[in-house]
Amino acid sequence: MKINNLTADAPIFLRIDNRKQHDISMRELAHAYTEDTQVKWNGVLGRMELKAENDVKLQQVNVYPDIAGKRIKVKAVLVRTNPQTTQAEITLQVNCAETGKSYEPQTYPAAFPHDTVCIEKEYALGEDMRLWDEFSPTLYTLQASCHTRQGTDRYETTFGMREIGHTDGYLTINGNRIFLRGTLECCIFPLTGTPPTDEAGWEKVFSTAKAWGLNHLRFHSYCPPEAAFKVADRMGFYLQVELPNWSLTVGKDTATNRFLYQEFDRIIAAYGNHPSFCMLSTGNELQPDFQFLNAFVGYMKRQDNRHLYATTTFTFEQGHGTQPEPEDDFFVTQWTDKGWIRGQGVFDAEEPNFNKDYRQAAEGIKVPLISHEIGQYSVYPDMKEIGNYTGTLEPLNLKAIQKDLEKKGLAGKAERYLQASGRFAVQLYKEEIERAMKTPQFSGYQLLGLQDFPGQGTALIGLVNAFWESKKLTDERYFRQFCSPVVPLARFEKATWTTNETFAAQVEIANYYKEDIRGKHILWQLTDKTGYEVGRGKLDAGDVVLTQDISQALSALEAGKKVLLSPRPDKLEGLEGKFLPVFWSPVHFPKQAGTMGILCDPKHPALLHFPTEIHSDWQWWNLVKHSKVLVMDSLPDLQPIIEVTDNFVNNRRLASVFETKYGKGKLIMSSIDLLSTESKQKPEVKQLFYSLTQYMNSADFVPTGTVSKQDLLSFFSKQNKGVEKRTDARSIYEE
């Protein structure tokens, strides 16, 4: 018997060149090629087989979901190994694992004018099609068969009906907004020194991550084996994979560039059909050639549109990293050109304040924004972990620390050190996560990490150890209170209070579950540590989109939602908000803002919970001083809730708050700043905000006028003015 001119019992050798051939690993830190978290194995991982080929081989079958059309597009690449073969038949068969349904097989002819041909066909799934996401990870199987007279070649692949995208800067799955609750996976497997190629090994990783409330893993500078994708598919995890690249010489070497392009092609060919494979970055903290990286991402998009792509996962390169690159589909960063978006930059520099979020730093980002490697709070080593190292790697670092503690007579304190530092880290991670979830522009965060990182000199920053086992610093149930699809959030101004102060907090709910909470009630209970109940009650769920951003407002209105739009005043065209009426005479002193106080109906249901008369009074000072006055002359149909009296020279129609219909939605626009962090600390601002939102959630909110997109946009400044110049009492005398 002969096999490719070899006898059946002849040995077959696989030769591995494990030398570093490309500059893809700065100081050999990239997790695809490092001894920091694994071993540089002298071999290959996974399955090897010797297979007799048919005269036509199904080399690749790619599945492209079409959610709107309730169908898939199938691209099959066929390679002819026998030049005499000119015809074949392709049969496609789809099965749904969840429902047990087998769809009708479809058969197509295939001709071979060349040795390699690509067949593209559509396959309808119909009205009973089920989508894939974290809540319902429904999987389908496609079996493709290629029949010739010489035999049959088969190819089987799993896929899910999911489309990942971004709308108005927000990350979406199947058109629904999602929020990534993620951590890094850095190829940390101490027993083997290599990532598992069996599904059982990955089930431990993903089941632990899920128990702690996560829905996302980022594979830092490497791509995992097939088994990881299969488990993530079943469990509904969103994965970001990366090319094996952590380099400061990106783009400089032609051979390395070619390798990276080829590696991308291989990753897509091997894993592209997996629904869990959502995002891909060209590597970690890359430098310096972003012209090369943008061109590379452009190539990725043209090759396969089933995933989102990014030039790098953060960068320290000067002139980059503070805003997305032109080709970025998503943006992972520590900061923007407006400030930090992770706690490392602020928690040690500012007094504790739980009103804050990162919305100012996130302003203007037009693609999904994800905070990079948040946390990194070191925890004291757990000496009990030493006994777990029964495989390839030894815990020489932990043994050295233990020996030093024993030498200094501190070994008895190690457990207390662990508990004190670890429980502190839990509180810091809690604030990290909650501040991210309070930021409306965020699409997620990536922890570094839930799991310890044994490399780089020992970075024990996890709440679980290197084996994905809990350190018992807290339990998963507590962690899930702030790391879940639905999280209650409280905003309050400080961490310490005296007994003569009244604690006040604004409660919000971050809801990224598959269902909204409209029409439901929120039950609350406040207890002390002993369980003594201070109070309880019921809140109506807010059915209002709150935003400072006109694009987000328009998108929500077009979807038929209720929107409270309150932009920052410096983004608006209009008159300066003034508390005092015009001085002396607007004729004699024309250089004034020129208004004469507010005008409102105290009985209007929108002001039911805000104490006021028909006129301005002292409680209006902060409100009008942090506002713009909108000129409404060209929009007679709009209904002001809070008007502003103009002076008798101009007699313009002016307003600060109005209501209207827009498309299928309903809108209240406020040029009084109700949503910025600094304004919301004022009790009068909180009260007006409360009164307006209560009105919007009531049956009384039935605006009659209508407004166009052009009308709304006319209120906004064409230029980003930044800090606005304001007049003072002397300004009227200036020439």
TrEMBL record:
Annotated GO MF terms: hydrolase activity
Keyword Hydrolase: yes
UniProt key word Hydrolase: yes
Ranges of residues in domain Glycoside hydrolase family 2 immunoglobulin-like beta-sandwich: 57-162
Source superkingdom: Bacteria
Sorted UniProt keywords: Hydrolase
InterPro entries assigned: Beta-gal/glucu_dom_sf, GH, GH2_Domain-Containing, Ig-like_fold, Ig-like_GH2
UniProt record similarity statement: Belongs to the glycosyl hydrolase 2 family.
Record-given protein name: Glycoside hydrolase family 2
